[in-house]
Amino acid sequence: MTSTKDVSSQSDIGKLRAESDGSFKRAPSSFRNSISNDGKFQPEKGRYHLYISYACPWATRTLITRKLKGLEDFIPFSAVSPHMGAQGWPFKNADPSWEDADNDPEHPNFQHVKDLYLLADPNYGGRFTVPVLWDKKLNTVVNNESSEIIRIFNTAFNHLLPADKAAIDIYPEAHRQEIDSINEWVYDTVNNGVYKSGFAQSQSAYENAVYALFKSLDRVEEILKGKDYLVGNTLTEADIRLFVTTTRFDPVYVGHFKCNLRDIRHGYPNINLWMRKLYWNNDAFKSSTKFDHIKEHYYWSQTMVNPSRVVAVGPVPDIEPL
């Protein structure tokens, strides 16, 4: 069963409207609850379900963190089809053409992610984004903001996890100030910067975004000189948040979003090595990165950028070997 309410302005990416100066501004997420022992949403094995798209960098953050923390048996997940059309992200029953997608095991008749949002709040007025962290007990959305979900995963279930997984901390207190500082400008100019470049509707908006993007990539390149991680000598959320953008950069953002001053593999050797080490040496990163989903989604779904829906074949390989 899917909602009959006309919410196409919320689900159809083709109806996104730029600002008056042609720039793209991302709306904030709406569901911002946490999971805690003394709250409405308590940490329980099997209570929650995660909805993601392998194509979406924001959702992939949560999938990486889920695996790093050993939460696979605690929080199952479902992956939607990469074909985000007029109704938004579809489950497999709405898009059987994409074999590597899931139906919603909690609501077998639901066809799109939007149905979850409208069940949680029939008057919901925001966009129907992933990730979605769903509470099966209360039948509602806990949180749909990826930066908060990864912090929930980092600590909320530690008392239920084996000691080795509980000890993993992607937001260590000693480095929080530096992590927060890096996150702030990486989000604005890199994670979201590629979208501001690609969705720009004026030359000035595009150039403002794309030059800021590459200025920040230059800055990241310097930070990663001789280092395996962005902060300290340990894997943190700063690495996770940057990785999901850099892995999509050469396959999608260079061409599709016109982020073409340089690519990662030829223009940024330090970033490229850091990215490849994470991908090839840590399965939480590799298993969460599906390049077929990534390329199909951007080139097929974003018809305001690519009306033909022709999917680019390069680069080869999607990511270089170590």
Rg computed from alpha carbons, rounded to a whole number of angstroms: 19 Å
Oligomer: single chain
Question: Helices and strands, in N-to-C order?
Answer: HEHEHEEHHHHHHHHHH
What is the share of helical residues? Answer: 40-55%
Q: Give the strand content.
A: under 5%
So how many helices?
Answer: 13
Contiguous runs where pLDDT drops below 50 for at least 5 residues? none
Mean pLDDT across all amino acids: 95
- How would a crystallographer describe the biggest sheet? 4 strands, mixed
N- and C-termini, Cα separation: 47 Å
Number of strands: 4
Shape: globular
Strand order of the largest sheet: 2-1-3-4
Secondary-structure class: mainly alpha
Structural commentary:
A hairpin with a 4-residue loop joins strand 3 and strand 4. Helix 2 (57-68) runs parallel beside helix 4, helix 2 (57-68) packs antiparallel against helix 9 (237-256) and helix 6 runs parallel beside helix 9 (237-256). A four-stranded mixed β-sheet has the order 2-1-3-4, sandwiched between helices. The chain is built from 13 helices and four strands. It has 322 residues and is mainly alpha-helical. Helices cover 41% and strands 5% of the residues. The radius of gyration is 19 Å and the shape is globular.
